[in-house]
Design a protein that fits this description.
Blueprint: E1 12-14, E2 18-21, H1 27-39, H2 44-51, E3 57-60, H3 65-91, E4 100-104, E5 107-110, E6 113-116, E7 122-124, E8 129-133, H4 136-142, H5 149-167, H6 177-201, H7 209-219, H8 222-230, H9 243-256
Parallel strand pairs: 1-4, 4-8
Antiparallel strand pairs: 2-3, 5-6, 7-8
């Protein structure tokens, strides 16, 4: 994927300079942290909201040049999702309200509760934000075998799919494992729509990119993850769908190329 030097999104909240572990912030620490966050280009109100009564002691964390490159990549992908969904919502007579993408390191507090990096990227419907520890891209490649930039782009696009579900009030059906699987597969489908529209409107998708996305979708299938972690598969416990289902759902969105390919309008 051609992403270097391209326009990024303004909807990035970078909290990586404050790794999280331990006890709650005191008032003085919170104020100092908000000032530092402002100097780093963030909104201090966002910082206070994210760290009030949070079970995490913030301490400066190193941010490498490689991670800065990943931040730029995530910002560009987020901007591409905004371009696609603004247009797709407009075509449907709707207005797209883009989410914030919160970058964190080690642990983070969201309106859905505290989480550490082990949970992977996630969308919190309560504050309409996507949360991402950029080290997940390494895990995706090293541990799950999903290689390439577009594998990471798929992950971001999938989480944005959950935001679309929230905006269209489709997420209310998450009552059990079966409905959870349906929502996850729909988010994969929406990621496929994003890939189709980005390819059609911008000369940025390269040969092999779609295969990378399909590989990433398959890599995070419940069956493959369970087989890897415990050596056997329990279909009744699936919450995201099998590798085949996830790749197939992405293909469905990529082939259809429109919001209506995944969502009954």
């Amino acid at each position: 994927m051609k992403w270097r030097g391209r326009k990024g999104s303004d909807n990035i909240v970078d909290q990586r300079s404050f790794g999280g572990r331990g006890t709650a912030m005191g008032g003085g620490t919170l104020i100092i942290g908000a000032i530092i966050y402002f100097l780093l280009g963030g909104n201090p109100i966002d910082f206070v909201a994210q760290n009030t009564d949070v079970a995490s002691q913030r301490s400066p964390a190193s941010v490498s040049n490689a991670e800065d490159g990943r931040k730029e990549f995530a910002s560009v992908v987020l901007a591409d999702t905004e371009d696609v969904w603004i247009e797709q919502f407009r075509a449907a007579g709707l207005t797209y309200d883009p989410p914030k993408l919160v970058l964190f390191q080690n642990a983070v507090r969201s309106a859905c509760g505290s989480a550490n990096s082990a949970v992977g990227p996630f969308y919190c419907p309560a504050d309409r934000r996507v949360y991402l520890d950029l080290s997940f891209f390494d895990q995706l490649s090293r541990d799950l075998g999903a290689q390439g930039d577009f594998a990471g782009a798929y992950v971001i696009a999938h989480e944005i799919g959950h935001h679309i579900q929230k905006l269209l009030e489709l997420d209310r059906s998450r009552r059990d494992n079966r409905s959870s699987v349906q929502l996850e597969l729909q988010a994969d489908c929406l990621a496929g729509v994003w890939a189709h529209q980005t390819e059609a409107s911008k000369d940025v998708i390269e040969a092999g990119d779609i295969d990378e996305a399909l590989g990433a979708a398959a890599a995070v299938g419940d069956d493959r993850l369970q087989e890897r972690s415990q050596g056997y598969v329990v279909p009744d416990s699936f919450t995201h769908g099998t590798s085949e289902q996830r790749a197939s759902s992405f293909r469905k969105g990529y082939s259809g190329g429109r919001l209506g390919s995944c969502v009954q309008m």
